[in-house]
Amino acid sequence: MDLNLSDEQRLLRESAERFVAESYDADHRRKMANDPSGFSPAVWEQFAELGWLALPIAEEFGGLGGSAVETGILMEAFGRGLVSEPYVATVVLGAGLIGRCGNAVQKQARLPKIADGSLKLAFAHSERTARFDLAKVATIANKTAHGWRLAGSKVAVLDGQAADEIIVSADIHDHQGPSGRIGLFLVPAQTRSLAMSDYHRLGGGRTCNIELSDVHLQEDALLGDDHDALPAIEWAVDRAMAALGAEAVGIMQTLLETTLEYTKIRKQFGRPLSANQVIRHRLADMAMQVDEARSMALRAALKADSAPVERARAASGAKAKIGKCARFVGEQSIQLHGGMGVTDELEVGAYFKRLVAFDTLFGGSAHHYGRHAQLGRTTVPA
Amino acid sequence: MDLSFNDEERAFQDEVRGFIAKNLTDEMKRATALTPSVFSDPDIGMAWQRALHAQGWGAPGWPVEHGGPDWTPAQRWIFETESARAGVPNVNVMGVKMVGPVIIGFGNDAQKNFYLPRILSGEDYWCQGYSEPGSGSDLSSLKTRAVRDGDDYIVNGTKIWTTHAHHANRMFALVRTGDGPRQQDGISFVLIDMKTPGITTRPILTIGGDHEVNQVFFDDVRVPVANRVGEEGKGWTYGKYLLEFERGSGIASAKLREGLKAIAELAESDLTGRAIGSPDIATRISEVEIDIDALEMTELRVLSALQTGQNPGAVSSILKLRNSEIRQAVTRLGVDVIGHDALAVEPMRPLYKLNHEPALPEEMLTVVPEYLNGRAYTIFGGTSEIQRDIIAKMMLGI
Fold first, then answer.
1. Could you give the percent of chain A with pLDDT greater than 70?
2. Are B97 and B221 in contact (CB under 8 A)?
């Protein structure tokens, strides 16, 4: 039992924090907020040089073989600077799914390229009518003589605009009709009959909706074999939630520090705001919730490779709890900044918006309290 | 980073489990489960303390030379967790965890030699004389006065919220021996024999129907000067040192988890008409369980820091605050889970020695009293408001 950072982990944290503090300042964030590409290729290249894109990829494919804990350390530092590069889409979800489901050829063709920065991915899974139910997929993949034909609509695809290739989930229909299995398909982003409409994501980065109207694919577009991919999807999304949870912790920490400084400087009625007990207690509550969120993000990361129910409960527990803490810390940061907190002139709002996006991604607190409860009711019939 | 235990730690876990299996009687277990106040009655609690002492585990936090077992933080974690899981008696901590560390830290040799073995063996039963009717959160405004008369102090005043004063043969108390520029000055830390003439104890019943706390009156009570711990007038320093122990024992999540488990079992039972069928109840159980998960991780993070000799800092206030709030959430949930049965009151005590058929099933007997008495968790040992002041000051510097 030991939750202290190892020397390597400490170095990772220091270098990530240094990078964010030095290269990812307010000017850069402001520039990126209006940039239609949503990320900076130069920064992505630096990520590759620093080894961060290789971090969770297996060593045999040019990666560093890191765990979800290392990803969390990196993500927390990203949160401090509101990094908008498509790290979760490409490295956590994309490389994660390929590493877990892909066959040797598929892995060899992609994982080293992700690690060196030359390939970016996105994961198109969510659908409007499914809301946050990962098992509900209406997009269809029809088996044909030469391969596959995909049709359907996907929403809220993280950083799809940046991707070279998109992993699309679809309900497999073979010659006997619906198989009840979900398959994952590698679709080149430039495929005709794949229409992408992308938009600014709340809090930075970009997100898109995708229409697939009769997309023809080769046989080997199917990731791995035609086993049901739902367990892998749940595994990958639980991992992404742990990573995003760590990012949210970094965001909250920055908001707490910024707000604390502001209450010390801002004077009303002849004294600093922080001289008021009601303000001090609010900040104490914020600090406590940041700490609870940090514990939950770490817990989800440590259990990212546990047995499915334990892992999923840890991930949903973290998502629910961190989401709740994030809303509180974010909303109170604005409240304590007063009218200025509501303006776009301070960065508080940008950090807050990223937290709102976090709480929404893959389902909000209410959804995940429910999932946690459902998974826990093993002795009670549903 | 690793959440799992190593071979040595697993072997220790087996040893603790073996000890508990051998020593924890069904009677102790039932009495503990049916005690809706903080501590077990002395007959139950001290029986457990004697068993622990016989094993050399009577005072986990003490240095080896005074009889401590020299456990690592991980071993203490395992011990506390296994104890909570098994439902061992809640031994009154006033001796081992509160006055013991003060005597070890600031007492003279005569005091150490006399008191420490009697704490370990359970021969002495301690209570705490801190709060007064006029001094709650503002503890250092206390007025109980000790006036020097030869080799004695003559003590006059009153103490309140004195847990188990009606059982205790000794009290450690903060008394005013002088007046300094600050109200914290002139306070001394004294050890008082509860049989000394002039001491009277008035029971205070809590809203749950339990007699756990008291008011104690001192009328010209003679306390030997030799019973003062440390220097005269420095008692506030010692008293604060003790409060950190009261707040920061730091391993509470296992007990919370057992409390929630009992409520979840009720929710899944026919006794409550399977309350868990309501999505609201099921979600709230999850909500509390997740809060316990977060607290447990924070405890483990603190423990890891302690293992490598780092100082965890003001986090003990966070642990105290969250522990008390979550405990209240568990008991609140309990009341909602038992539904109609929350209306039934069983006034007799102790609940494990009733000589009549109670108004509600045994599994439910403590639910409402625990909720009601549990309101005190965010009040004693420094209110939640005081803890927030400490967090703001120590962690945030405001």
1. 98
2. no
Instruction: Spot the catalytic one: B82, B132, B246, B299.
Output: B246
Give the confidence band of A377 by pLDDT, cuts at 50, 70, 90.
low
Model ipTM? 0.95
Question: pTM for this one?
Answer: 0.96
Cβ neighbours, 10 Å, residue B238: 24
Measured between CA atoms, how close is A55 to chain B, in angstroms? 16
Residue A228: other Cβ atoms inside 10 A = 14
Q: Specify which of A1-5, A198-202, A296-300 reaches the highest per-range mean pLDDT.
A: A296-300
**Option in A6, A295, A377 nearest B298 (CB):** A295
* Cβ-defined contact of B1 to A380 (cutoff 8 Å): no
Where does CATH 1.10.540.10 sit in chain A? 7-118
C-alpha separations of A306 from B64, B257, B293, B301 in Å: 39, 21, 16, 20
Residues B283/A373, Cβ–Cβ less than 8 Å: yes
Q: Which residues pair with B170 in a beta bridge?
A: B126, B193
Identify the residue whose tokens are 């008011």.
B215
Instruction: Give Rg (Cα) of chain A.
Output: 21
Residue type, A307: A
The strand pairing partners of B199, in sequence order, are B218
CATH 1.20.140.10 spans which residues of chain A?
230-378
**Catalytic (active site) residue B246:** yes
Q: What is the 3-state secondary structure (H, E, C) of B309-343?
A: CCCCCCHHHHHHHHHHHHHHHHHHHHHHHHHHHHH
Write the single-letter amino acid at B236: W
Q: What is the CATH number of domain A123-221?
A: 2.40.110.10
The 10 Å Cβ neighbour count of residue B14 is 11
Q: What is the CATH number of domain A230-378?
A: 1.20.140.10
Residue A181 three-state SS: strand
Buried b (16+ CB within 10 A) or exposed e, B46-70: bbbbbbbbeeebbbbebeeebbbbe
pLDDT category at B306 given cuts 50, 70, 90 is confident
E-assigned strands of chain A? 121-124, 140-143, 147-158, 165-174, 177-188, 194-200, 206-218, 267-268, 271-272
Class of domain A7-118: mainly alpha
Please enumerate in sequence order all residues whose Cβ is within 8 A of that of A155, keeping only pairs 6 or more positions apart, or say none: A126, A127, A128, A209, A210
Kindly tell me if the per-residue pLDDT of A129 is higher than 90.
yes
Q: Give which of B12, B266, B384, B396 to mutate to test A binding, by max A Cβ within 10 Å.
A: B396
Minimal Cβ distance to A1: which of B3, B294, B395: B3
Q: What backbone torsions phi and psi does residue A268 show, to the nearest 5 degrees?
A: -140, 145
